């Protein structure tokens, strides 16, 4: 705790320097829950929040997508009692409607799932500014055609082909392309996983070192049960039930070990695809790629 307090409260430090210090701390120590909002703000490069501006947006009332937002807000983590004890449906609706007003965009399904952990970890105003920043950083993931998500699913196939080609061949043999087993995890940056406290730890890392690492982390999740998948007649049953232990620290540790095995060109695509539509368009969606010939 004291290391984070020193970094957050020491005056006259540039935002970039404070961010660099926090990146180092995230790898060594857990982020204090009562400071996570501030840590995320700095890691994502947000220098301030304007409470009055947010209140002004809220006063505009329902947006053009109010009904869609209302329905999705009710569905967000519907079976997670601790989440709903802390986060109200009204706060979710206010933030999402305010975002539509602020950016002049249309609500896209999945924004509610991304907002959920933000409001669980911090307050409503911080949640708004954090979600707005995520939209700015990962525009391709928020586009109506979800081109960034499709590109991410193609990239996770590329990653799997390098770090565990045997498992990839098994998945291809059963027609389990990347978009079938990785789409929801990639699209939500892991927010759809449980428990939610582990999602927060995962986001500490992603906000520190790049959202583009999510396809790699999605592969790690599958590799952890590779022996079960390789021996099972229907591996999708294992993936579908989500009976895979989610331990953020362990997954991150494994991801860092595998990251050095990836070629520079693939690492560059991982780092840029989530915010660059041109990179996404140059990556064939996994659903359109021919399967590995060795699996046919």
Which short descriptors sum up this protein?
globular, Cyclin A, domain 1, Helicase, Ruva Protein, domain 3, disordered C terminus, single chain, 296 residues, mainly alpha, 67% helix, 3 domains
Task: Describe, in short, the structure shown.
This protein is mostly helical.
Structure description:
The chain has 20 helices and no strands. With 296 residues, it is an all-alpha fold. The protein has three domains: 1-44, no CATH class; 51-138, Orthogonal Bundle (Helicase, Ruva Protein, domain 3); 147-283, Ypt/Rab-GAP domain of gyp1p, domain 3 (Cyclin A, domain 1), CATH 1.10.472.80. 41% of the residues are buried.
Overall mean pLDDT stands at 91
Tell me the CATH architecture of the largest domain.
Orthogonal Bundle
Q: How many H/I helices?
A: 20
What is the end-to-end distance? 54 Å
The stretches of 5 or more residues where confidence is low (pLDDT under 50) are 292-296
Any idea how many domains? 3
Largest sheet: none
**CA-based shape:** globular
- The run of helices and strands is HHHHHHHHHHHHHHHHHHHH
Radius of gyration computed on alpha carbons = 19 Å
CATH superfamily of the largest domain: Ypt/Rab-GAP domain of gyp1p, domain 3
Number of strands: 0
* CATH fold type of the largest domain: Cyclin A, domain 1
Broad structural category: mainly alpha
* Assembly context of the chains: single chain
Helical proportion? Answer: 55-70%
Class of the largest domain in CATH?
Answer: Mainly Alpha
The fraction of residues assigned to DSSP E strands is under 5%
């Amino acid at each position: 705790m004291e290391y984070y307090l020193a970094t957050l409260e020491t005056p006259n430090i540039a935002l970039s320097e404070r961010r660099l210090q926090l990146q180092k701390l995230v790898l060594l120590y857990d982020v204090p829950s009562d400071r996570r909002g501030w840590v995320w703000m700095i890691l994502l490069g947000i220098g301030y929040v304007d409470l009055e501006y947010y209140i002004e947006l809220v006063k505009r009332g329902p947006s053009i997508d109010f009904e869609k937002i209302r329905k999705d807000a009710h569905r967000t983590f519907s079976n997670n009692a601790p989440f709903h004890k802390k986060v109200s449906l009204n706060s979710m609706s206010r933030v999402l409607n305010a975002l539509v007003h602020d950016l002049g965009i249309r609500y896209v399904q999945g924004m509610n799932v991304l907002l959920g952990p933000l409001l669980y970890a911090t307050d409503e105003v911080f949640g708004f500014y954090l979600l707005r920043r995520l939209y700015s950083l990962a525009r391709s993931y928020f586009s109506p055609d979800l081109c960034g998500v499709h590109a991410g699913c193609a990239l996770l196939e590329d990653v799997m082909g390098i770090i565990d080609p045997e498992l990839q061949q098994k998945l291809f043999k059963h027609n389990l392309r990347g978009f079938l087993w990785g789409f929801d995890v990639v699209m939500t940056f892991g927010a759809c996983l449980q428990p939610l406290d582990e999602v927060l730890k995962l986001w500490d890392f992603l906000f520190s070192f790049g959202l583009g690492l999510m396809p790699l982390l999605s592969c790690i999740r599958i590799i952890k049960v590779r022996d079960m998948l390789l021996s099972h007649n229907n591996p999708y049953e294992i993936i579908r039930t989500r009976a895979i232990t989610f331990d953020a620290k362990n997954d991150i540790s494994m991801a860092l070990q595998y990251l050095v095995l990836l070629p520079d060109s693939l690492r560059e695509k991982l780092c840029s695809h989530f915010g660059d539509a041109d990179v996404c368009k140059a990556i064939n969606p996994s659903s359109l790629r021919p399967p590995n010939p060795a699996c046919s």
